[in-house]
Amino acid sequence: MSGKLQRYRLHQREEGLASFLVTAIMIIVISLIVLGFGVLARRENQTALDRQLSTQAYYAAESGVNDAIKAIQAYQAANPALATNPPSKTNCSNTKSDPYLALSSSSSFSLSSGGKASYSCLLIFTQPSSLVYDSTTSKVINIQDNSGASFQSLSIEWLDSNFTNQAAFNNCPSRGTFPASWPDKCDADVLRVDLVPAAALESVTPLKALESQTFTVFLYPSTAKVGPTITYNPSPSGEGAIVSAGCINTGCSATINNLNQNQYYMRVTAMYGIPQNITITGQDANGVADFSHGQAVIDSTGRAQNELRRIEVRTTINNLNNGFFPAQALQLKDSICKRFYITPNVGGGVPGNPNPGEPNFDSTALADPAACSLI
After folding, report:
1. 183 CB-contact burial (10 Å; exposed 0-12 / middle 13-18 / buried 19+)
2. How far apart are CA 281 and CA 259, in angstroms?
3. pLDDT tens digits, residue range 99-143?
4. φ and ψ of 197, to 5 deg
5. Which among 81, 103, 213, 303 is placed 20 to 30 Å from 274, CA to CA?
């Protein structure tokens, strides 16, 4: 009897074990879920904070760019002789010999907003190894070798500024054909390049020098992979050639060689008016050429706590389009009307016209304001 009672009591003590295990497991699972939600919440908060700090660092870097532009402009105003070729700033730290230090709005290149954001490094390169212009349809570019050596060649690369992913050139028209409108599926416009030595503008007879030394070429997009090498030949036999450029998925390119001057003016024109991203590089006797009197590259690093943002911006040092060298010969705010009169010479000729049978040109009509209303 006592043995049966003992076994019965033992069975009674084991009845709540399953409930205890289930409860323990549920507590562990719930704890893990709560812990997971906590980790996700902290991670989300950290992500939001990092995003905010990254934005602050970016704005701090932009502030550095603006301060650098102001410092360059102040240097140009204070040093007119060096206005088109200001010095570079190649060290993050500021020293008393820094040419821009005394010209900055504060005592050093450092921005602080409650100690939370600053630009920790600001570099200015005024002799870059390339000239880059974004969204350009027509521009006059000053190309000058910083070392004073003569250029041997100049390379130009271009691409539509609105291309997506990899550019496509399989649908470009055949070379030499100029359709009424450029197809959207061809990611580069026809580029007209006019190149003239700067010495031609300093000639005693600049008009004749421009006529004899200006080289013009039309660069046509194609499926060729390698960019052509074009010989600088401003003679009538080499003028106005239409050349197939080499195009890959990063853009089209061509090289002009046989150069022997250290300064040129180049006008690039997108024939169909489609904005192009244009990059120019050069070679001289020393190898890759550095350009002066053209662009300044500003490298600014912003910091907000542990977040860093680095941006690079180019600014024009000597904007020829707003100065002495326009992109075109004549530019008006309103439309212009031209009317020419050609009348037969009936009365036996006029003084200065030895051929009585030739027509005469009445130049007074050019100054007649009413001529336009007659058209």
Report:
1. exposed
2. 14
3. 776 544 443 444 444 557 888 888 999 999 999 998 888 888 999
4. -65, 145
5. 213
